[in-house]
Amino acid sequence: YHQLLVFPLAFALAVEGWRRALLAKRMWWTMALLLVGWYAVRILLFTRSSYEAQRMPGMDELFTHGAALGELESTRHLLQVFPKFKAFLLLVLATIGLGAWRRAWALLAGTVLISTGFMVLVLITDRDGASPNIYENYYTVQGFFWGLLFAVFASEMQARRWIPVSIQAAVLLLGALQVWRAHALLSAHVRYAQRVTTTLRERGTFKAIADTRNFPWKYAWGEWPLAMETVLASGCVAPGAAATLFASSEPQALDSAMARPSAFLGPSWRPIWFTTDHFPKAQLHLPRQPYVRVNTVMPDSIEALFTADDVRLEPLADTITLAHDRYTVAEVRITNRAAHALGSLLEGGLPMRIAYHLRDAEGRELLWDGHRTPLELDIPPGGSHVQGLVIERPRENGTYQLRIDLVSDDRRWWGINVPLVVKAGF
Q1: What is the 3-state secondary structure of the chain?
Q2: Average pLDDT over residues 206-217
């Protein structure tokens, strides 16, 4: 049904047609035309959403962006993460080796051609994508191309069957290790939903709306599923513990919907699709109450009143071992000890942020302006919130010291400077 599935479907048909000598048989062509022809029916005759239309580049786009492939954001992302695909690279090398041994040059050439063409198409289609999971949804199709060809070569080996079995075991073990190593940002994604809903429940709020300027893109990625993700993450605690957070760049446009007690702001492309009355109350129960905004503007006059003693920053761990990804998310409890609310937006429109200074093990400063993470929520007087802090992995392995602080962009660092030890290993 998906537009791009025609490529793996056509590839599988072509490989089977070639290896079983079916290309001269009418039945094979009939089946192939029926299956691939469905693609044309689906695209030309069925109603397409605007989202689907955007993801089908025309010939002019293919030529224009294909000529500047190296300048696309999608290509930069691929080049950055490609060295991590060790299991895939091992699979490709092993398949090429088996194919060369069997002198299956046509199958190898065809696989290289369709694999490369599909990758170019994905890079052009998702050239402006802002979310890693958008790109990586389609990287896995490359594994299908080469995995299928490897299976073909392995199944046809009559002698030395231990060779493909050993290769397969190595690929699976290496892939399992990579899956385990890759959990960090996905776990941080889940933890974000758990943290914000815990804070909402503590405040007696079960339906809230956030500003996308405060959305932590580095570990929450896409805001469109946030409403349902937060419901699911909080509903796992107990049916009555469910809470939801919706993110919007124009929350004022939803004022009338927010005020309805039965409102549920769902996917960002259609936020008033259904109401809380549609929820199964035995599993997920959201009370009938209006939405509350959790990101509000802090006037300059209030921001100027805050001192370093008014805010307490407490890392939940004294030492953090950095993940193998570029970014690691540490958790820091922010407590507002002042008599006025700590707003998560500044008067100029920028978010308040938590950041750090980086030092080596001996205390020498390496980086003054560490990665800045927006405050997820406002913090009322006497209130607190466990906040994510994005730490960018240093280039060299070793032990480092952070000094965690709040920063008002273009104005000041607050001077709180709470220490945290981070370790970057292999």
Answers
A1: CCHHHHHHHHHHHHHHHHHCCCCCCHHHHHHHHHHHHHHHHHHHHCCCCHHHHHCCCCHHHHHHHHCCHHHCHHHHHHHHHHHHCHHHHHHHHHHHHHHHHCCCHHHHHHHHHHHHHHHHHHHHHCCCCCCHHHHHHHHHHHHHHHHHHHHHHHHCCCCCCHHHHHHHHHHHHHHHHHHHHCHHHHHHHHHHHHHHHHHHHHCCCCEEEEEHHHCCHHHHCCCCCHHHHHHHHHHCCCHHHCCEEEEECCHHHHHHHHHCCCECCCCCCCCCCCEHHHCCCCCCCCCCCCCEECCCEECHHHHCCCCHHHEEEEECCCEEECCCCCEEEEEEEEEECCCCCECCEECCCCECEEEEEEEECCCCEEECCCCCEECCCCECCCCEEEEEEEEECCCCCEEEEEEEEEEECCCEECCCCEEEEEEECC
A2: 95
